[in-house]
Amino acid sequence: MKKKVLLRCLLGAPIGLAIGTIVTIIISLTVGDGVYYPVVPKLITDCGNEMNAVLLQAVCSLIYGAAWGGASVIWEKENWSLLRQTVTHLIVCSISTFPIAYFMYWMKHSVSGILLYFSIFFAIYLIIWLSQYSAMKKRIQQMNEKVEKNNLGK
User: Fold this and answer.
1) What region does 2 belong to: left with phi over 0, alpha with psi -120 to 50, or beta?
2) What is the pLDDT of residues 80-107, one digit of tens each?
3) Radius of gyration for the alpha carbons in the chain, expressed in angstroms and rounded
4) Less packed terminus of the chain by CB within 10 Å, N or C?
């Protein structure tokens, strides 16, 4: 199990970095002034220069991706209920994601900023969870139909 978590972390890390980079490109495109914004200006101030800020954000994106990759093993705990898997996964991902988002200034450092961050986080999580649940339910239904069809043919 530990080996599987480690392998998933190693796979998730570069995915986290890629997603982090894609997000900065999208943000820069939506600003629309032709400038690339690799990090939040406040992070540059805290880090002393843009290069240090970019490096810190890259490391944090690797950690972010590794955490989500490692947490994916939770879905393979077949002796756990779907509710337990979901709550555990949500807690692990929330705990690993929030500090990074906070220190990278991906949210305002205020109560309203934190509440907005978690509202968006939970909304996105719910949308992804519901889409995955619906897809899995459909696949199970199709498998059951095939089994039923094979049993009727005997």
Assistant:
1) alpha
2) 998 999 999 999 999 999 999 999 998 8
3) 20
4) C
